[in-house]
């Protein structure tokens, strides 16, 4: 109802009263049409989203220029081609040691077994970590038992020497007695010859007796002369036997005296003292210390020349073909992350051995028996007090000369399926276009492009998840 159809109030000058307003009737209610259900709306939205995704995938799968959509732009990874050097390296791991070192072992005693010692007791050791000059004493062993035994052997030497002198005197007396017997026998023979000259004036019987006496004296004299030659040999043998007894005891003494000197161990090489770990009498592994009882020949310490340190590592027999003596290397110590030291390969094994994982080379049926490695030694050129023996370390060996050119990440280079052709995706306007390239060389992370790409161009590293299949 419009406002013109409402009754107007009378003016006051006509004496009319202002009537109370008549309330307007409520407008008639209109019945609105029913809205579609929530499930139907959600289904329509899903269908529309799927159609849009399919359209984007179909567009991106074409080999022509790619137009990155706003939703896919965040999934793409790109890189700029740059000019630089390509180097090939091989990572190896191992432990540090010294180029020159001296192994200090418990001395092997050369004296006879009557010394009665099967093991040795350490009396003193040089402190670990100290630097000693060459020729200095680094270990001493308990020697009281050997001093007592040397005193016993010295007394035996004196006794055998006295026996020798006594034997020599006795033989001189015997030889003189035998000489006097030969002289008397000769004199008897000469006297018998003189008596025989008077046989002409004697009877036949007396003459025959004188003749027999002279012949007997001659035979006796000659017998004594021959016996004298034999007795000379006997006396010489007896005297030589006594002399050998003296020499035996003297050599016995000299061996123990040399052993006495060996119990004060000297180092032939100057350097740092490093104590070794042994299995001691208490049944535990520990570093050597005074009071330990060890067997002769056991390793007790090393004196290392820390001025030249090397990394002992192994490489697979396949990778070893690329490494040469003189190749440069960069060494990193596990104990000091981030620290790098320069080095170079100085030695390579001539024969491959089984892997260093502990498998025996005589084992059968184990994969380690078929994996062969070659030992490599890398000399550390840098000098640093933190470079110590037995530290674990790794090294990157650069086994090829650096090559200059255009570099891109290796993952940017792709190859056509079934074709010997490589290409990259290069940014072209708002998209990426496929461009063939020629790769000169690659390492683990980079590729050196010889033709087809220039420094500064943007290349595509990866594809959005919806396009990854179409770019393979």
Order of helices and strands: HEEEEEEEHHEEEEEEEEEEEEEEEEEE
Task: Let me know the largest β-sheet.
Answer: 6 strands, antiparallel
The strand order across the widest sheet is 2-20-24-23-22-21
Helicity level, as a percent range? 25-40%
Low-confidence stretches: 1-24, 26-36, 59-73, 357-367, 464-472
The total strand number stands at 25
Structure description:
There is one protein chain. The protein is an alpha+beta fold. Helix content is 29%, strand content 29%. It has helices spanning 38-60, 144-196, 204-262; strands at residues 78-80, 82-86, 89-98, 101-105, 120-125, 131-132, 137-141, 264-266, 271-275, 277-279, 285-287, 293-294, 299-304, 309-316, 328-333, 340-348, 353-354, 372-380, 392-398, 403-409, 414-415, 422-428, 431-442, 446-451, 458-460. The model is unreliable at 1-24, 26-36, 59-73, 357-367 and 464-472 (pLDDT under 50).
Blueprint of the fold:
Elements: H1 38-60, E1 78-80, E2 82-86, E3 89-98, E4 101-105, E5 120-125, E6 131-132, E7 137-141, H2 144-196, H3 204-262, E8 264-266, E9 271-275, E10 277-279, E11 285-287, E12 293-294, E13 299-304, E14 309-316, E15 328-333, E16 340-348, E17 353-354, E18 372-380, E19 392-398, E20 403-409, E21 414-415, E22 422-428, E23 431-442, E24 446-451, E25 458-460
Helix pairs in contact: 2-3
